[in-house]
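Comment thread on ticket #2218

A.B. wrote:
> Attaching the input chain for the structure job we discussed in standup.
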Amino acid sequence: MLLKKKLIITMAKITPFKQVRMENKINRGAIFKNLKKEKETQPDYSGTINVEGVEKQIALWVNTSKSGMQYFSVLVSEPYAAEEKPEPKHEAKKEVKNTGFNDLPF
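C.D. wrote:
> Ran it. Output below, let me know if you need it in another format.
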């Protein structure tokens, strides 16, 4: 028997200055209008969804079919994780031994 699971996505409008990090319940998610969209390749809406306990990133574009009907084109991907830059290595300072010759000119 094939079980059908319902995935609920909540749409909301937020201000462009807030970064929202949400924990989604299983098989639920949230998408937000992309207020910083500059190119057609950037999604109109984006957010996160939880599918069977696994967090995913979701992006939606509003498109118009040949017959004039609007629809969402959807892309689901792994969550974005910024690359961690390695910390610069600091060289250890060399220890200078005191030889007792403090009157040397160099």
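A.B. wrote:
> Thanks. Noting for the ticket: The beta strands are 8-12, 28-33, 45-51, 54-64, 70-77.
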